[in-house]
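Hi W., the coenzyme A complex you wanted:
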Amino acid sequence: MDCIIRKWRSDDAKSLSELLNNKKILDNLRDGLPFPYTEKDALDYINAMLNADTNSVFAFAIEYEGKTVGSIGVFRQENIHSKTAEMGYYIGENYWNKGIATSAIKQTCDFVFKNSDIIRIYAEPFARNEASCRVLEKAGFDCEGTLRKNAVKNGIVEDMKMYAKIKSAEQ
Ligand SMILES: CC(C)(COP(=O)(O)OP(=O)(O)OC[C@H]1O[C@@H](n2cnc3c(N)ncnc32)[C@H](O)[C@@H]1OP(=O)(O)O)[C@@H](O)C(=O)NCCC(=O)NCCS
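Structure:
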């Protein structure tokens, strides 16, 4: 059974807080998320996504076999990058390696390209994040290069990869 992407609901807060209370996930994301990540933190995020500009923020819960198992979002950039958007995502550890992220990324990109004027979606995984790089490749992204020493995470200087998918003529 494939996963679905859908709008966030307030009653996702409990599942979301459980998924994100995991250092293995947080160590692969930007800083700024509280740890521990409470149900209130999750509800604040869900409300922010539900109230965001629908032409700039495309944020979805990922549901698999009736459970909320992950999060994916595409965020329009500004100024000369207004037709470019950054994508972020994570899947709860219990659900890794079932093809869920690959499918959710494909579905989300299709939705954004069909329902907006965005022409480029990119993601910047840490170079060491082989699972995320693999998922992006499986979802049709191209690796455009290495962003050397582009971040400091947990006190360690990290290389990142730049992956992007471009809207096709049919979309
Ligand atoms: C990255 C992540 C989203 C992948 O989700 P997922 O649902 O498990 O992904 P999929 O099942 O679609 O695909 C995983 C692929 O990575 C591969 N993989 C998993 N762990 C790996 C590792 N340590 N090294 C190399 N490849 C790995 C799997 O074998 C699979 O590829 P395959 O189908 O060719 O065998 C998930 O691991 C996660 O949430 N990680 C923490 C947060 C994160 O990294 N977010 C992305 C930030 S850019």
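The pocket of coenzyme A is lined by residues 25, 28-29, 89-91, 96-102, 123, 125, 129-132, 134-135 (CB under 6 Å).

W.
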